[in-house]
């Protein structure tokens, strides 16, 4: 496909405005974020070079990709409204260029952004997010503690504990049960358990190993007991946002593991998986809406088009929040929860396209 002068002109404006909006809005966001977190960073001794080179560099990448579809939408409305206000679109359409042909450079630009966003979501951001999350855990976030924990760690093993203290890696009232044919065959209990965050090594204090027999139980007591289990602390205690540091393959494997364990957070993980594909494709939909809304010169000029654009942004985000809550609390399928806003706004985009000036 040979790019005409019109194509190059619009693509340059599209991508140039997008990059400008990206740097402008992310810079403002970083200033607000720093003002909110500065006291915690200083109190926890965060080095200034790490704050800017590690945290905010990856902050920029993360939120830039997360809101790329909205930045794209604002960019389209911004420069298309300016073109309409400068009476640049009317001559283009009057010269015999159809509205579909006029849309071509917009969708070429959108395709570039969609491809880059998908690659960023699934391959670049996981590495970036890992550094950002590690920084937050070290200098900002309160360590994760758990109470009244219950988890199926394997097909036939259930784990229970009363309390986990992240500062000491100590677990109180640790119980690991092994079941066979719906019958409890082995029980391991310990008053205190210490887990290694980097390996699957464990140290237990005041523990009891009970093997249940048909008539008598075999019981052994140990004051101190060291062993290796098929799971470690990091497999049990983690923040849900750990999935942001996983690439596509790692995320799929992690979801399968959590489904086998019966984790209540599986819908959250599935939402993240499908979001990595649905959000980039929203760029196509919002591009069509943006061009259709702003390609006609209006009395209100750029201001009214931006107001309409922000209104549509609000409705899109609101619909995403509704479907997300439905997936987490009402059993709505995560796949549909993520894609439903795109489906709804596809119809809105088509309607606005039919009403756009031809």
Strand order of the largest sheet: 1-2-3-4-5-6
The total beta strand count reads 6
Major beta-sheet overview: 6 strands, antiparallel
The outline comes out as: elongated
**What's the helix count?**
10
- N-to-C SSE string, H for helix and E for strand: HHHHHEEEEEEHHHHH
Radius of gyration: 27 Å
- Residue fraction in strands: 15-25%
What is the residue-mean pLDDT, rounded to a whole number? 86
The unreliable regions are none
Rounded to the nearest angstrom, the distance between the terminal CA atoms is 24 Å
Structural class by helix and strand composition: alpha+beta
Relative helix content:
55-70%
What are the SSEs and their pairings?
Layout (H helix, E strand, L loop, with lengths): L4 H39 L4 H19 L1 H18 L3 H6 L4 H41 L6 E9 L2 E9 L4 E11 L2 E13 L5 E12 L4 E12 L4 H4 L11 H14 L4 H29 L6 H29 L4 H22 L3
Antiparallel strand pairs: 1-2, 2-3, 3-4, 4-5, 5-6
Compact overview of the structure:
The chain has 358 residues and is an alpha+beta fold. 62% of the residues lie in helices and 18% in strands.
Name a few traits of the molecule:
single chain; 358 residues; six-stranded antiparallel sheet; 10 helices; 6 strands; elongated
What does this structure look like?
The chain has ten helices and six strands. Strands 1-2-3-4-5-6 form a six-stranded antiparallel beta sheet, with no helix packed on it. The protein has helices at 5-43, 48-66, 68-85, 89-94, 99-139, 233-236, 248-261, 266-294, 301-329, 334-355, and strands at residues 146-154, 157-165, 170-180, 183-195, 201-212, 217-228.
